[in-house]
Amino acid sequence: MTKIRAAASVGLFLFVAYAAASVGYAQVIPGQALDASGAPQYRVDPFWPKPLPNRWSMQQVTGLYVEQKNDHVWFLNRGSAALPIELTAEGDPSPSLCCVRGPELIEADQAGNVVQAWGGPKYNPKWPTALQTVIVDTRGFVWISGEANEDSILKFTRDGKLVWDFDHRPPSGAKATPAVASPTIASSANSLRNRYAIAVSSSLSLVRFHGFVVDHRPAPPGSGPC
Hints:
Blueprint: H1 2-26, E1 60-66, E2 73-78, E3 105-108, E4 114-118, E5 131-136, E6 142-146, E7 153-156, E8 162-165, E9 189-190, E10 195-201, E11 207-212
Antiparallel strand pairs: 1-2, 2-3, 3-4, 5-6, 6-7, 7-8, 9-10, 10-11
């Protein structure tokens, strides 16, 4: 057990170091405003995104990802986190003008316009019950995961067609175990090698790393960090 935990700790350290290096590289943007120490400066835009269409309510945003090729922002809008007072337009007939529960995955452009939106409990029977992470890889596929015991990792086309399910869900009726986390995505695609670096957390003390090439076969040894 000590060896396993030590190996997991080393792997986690290397993964964090790799992720930190990637973030540091991404922050070097020509024309970016910097402070005296060279750190990037940011300003909150209270009008981004623009009001959502169709009277959709903005709920708990748990995952956010900026697509590399066009700077579109993908975010998860947890409908299950809505309070009754925030959904007063869902009655029939509607007693108010706003709001209703909308799709749980939204893509917005740089101006804050909704490009497309889809997803939710009624969208796919295996849709995560507690949305947590969204990532768009270099080929345009959208990866979504949740944090509940019964959640897993799903891969969709950018317009919402399911193409792969990681599965590994507990048996139906199994008791929830607080110490065991559901599989979740920990890092995005490697844009240089077109491979996905995915960390699957199976417990609080052990992290397993899996590398997959685009056809879902395990990446060959020595093919790059994963």
